Amino acid sequence: MVTKVKKIVFSGIQPTGTIHIGNYLGAIKNWAELQNNPDYDCIFFVVDLHAMTVPYDASNFQATIYNAVLDNLAAGLDPKKCTIFIQSQIKEHSELTWILDTLTPLGELQRMTQFKEKAEEQKSEVNAGLLTYPVLQAADILLYKTDFVPVGKDQEQHIEFTRTLARKFNARFGEVFKEPAALIPKAGAKIMSLTDPAKKMSKSHGPESYIALFDSDEMIRRKIKIAVTDSGKEVRYDPKNKPAISNLITIYHLFADQPIKEIEKRYAGKGYADFKKDLAEVIIDYLKPLRQKRERLEKNPDYVKNVLEEGRQKAQKIATATMIEVKKKTGLI
Ligand code: AQP
């Protein structure tokens, strides 16, 4: 009997505080769907090393990392169907980063959109890690011989960079890495900020700009109520001319699983206020079971510990095997 080789799906999330609905709709929701596909072997991880590139509090970092794992389990990752682990527990990520660093032109990193934005945001703390972030990300992905990386639109440039590095390494040292492809969702790939629809929804733009996955019902109602809207009062999907309301319609469409046309029809002749009131309830209804699941998980730390240990062991096996190949090809002892 011929066993079919499964494609590797690999992606991660930073433990930098609360996960928001942008992270969920752009990435985690798709991860939870992909893990059900029998053709895929899914590996997801919490990228704590990446989170160290921005100012953070070491005294509660462990709790933040642990909470990110809880958030992802509550949001639908099922350890029976996928591998879940913590980046820093696999040393090979850092080891491969160094080797890939030596293949990376400095100018390419300086041109990365995320670096330019973050360097602007944290002017006083532009560390080298912020610059080499995409190299660590490439090492993460390549270490697992990844085929597909499900991410939001903002990560497209980093995946392209990863492909370039894989090609470069293979050309110079011999074939080791696969060239991964980004899997970007058709809708939800870039959920915009509630306070500024020109910017992507982001934790760093203040709590009113995003809805956290585990915000209270009251917080969700308030944030949607004060979310900026466009001039006029028509609930119409038109990202170019009505970016704020189009963003809210996208959120409605994805959480209610209803076509955009149907939503527009339902609110024809009604104003933004009616639409926003219903949108808040749609989000609340969707997120309720996730919150309940998180509460159950919180009471079961041993289960979470076991999930992470199993994940670590599976990840370690793959990472070790890849690094043996890498060391051989690069001439290291
Ligand atoms: N606004 C978004 N819309 C769709 N997808 C998004 N992602 C992030 N923001 C959006 C996707 O979520 C996954 C995890 O991203 P991350 O851990 O790298 O988080 P981030 O992009 O750093 O999130 P923030 O909120 O923007 O953090 P700060 O403010 O700290 O920089 C990725 O697949 C990403 O594409």
Annotation keywords:
333 residues; mainly alpha; three-stranded parallel beta sheet; two-stranded parallel sheet; 13 helices; binds adenosine-5'-tetraphosphate
Structure, briefly:
The longest helix is centred in the C-terminal third of the chain and has 30 residues, at 301-330. Helix 4 runs parallel beside helix 13 (301-330) and helix 9 (217-226) runs antiparallel to helix 12. 53% of the residues lie in helices and 8% in strands.
Task: Explain the overall architecture.
The structure is a single chain. The protein is mainly alpha-helical. About 55% of the residues lie in helices and about 10% in strands. The chain has a three-stranded parallel β-sheet with strand order 1-2-3. Strands 4-5 form a two-stranded parallel sheet. Helix 1 (about 20-35) links the parallel strand 1 and strand 2 (about 40-45). The longest helix is centred in the C-terminal third of the chain and has 30 residues, at about 300-330. It is globular, with a radius of gyration of 21 Å. It starts with 6 loop residues before the first strand and ends with a helix. The structure holds adenosine-5'-tetraphosphate (AQP).
Topology summary:
Layout: E1 7-13, H1 21-34, E2 40-46, H2 48-51, H3 61-74, E3 82-86, H4 92-101, H5 106-110, H6 113-121, H7 128-143, E4 148-150, H8 156-173, E5 181-183, H9 217-226, H10 243-256, H11 260-266, H12 272-298, H13 301-330
Parallel strand pairs: 1-2, 2-3, 4-5
Adenosine-5'-tetraphosphate is lined by residues 13-14, 16, 20, 22-23, 25-27, 151-152, 154-155, 189-191, 200-204.
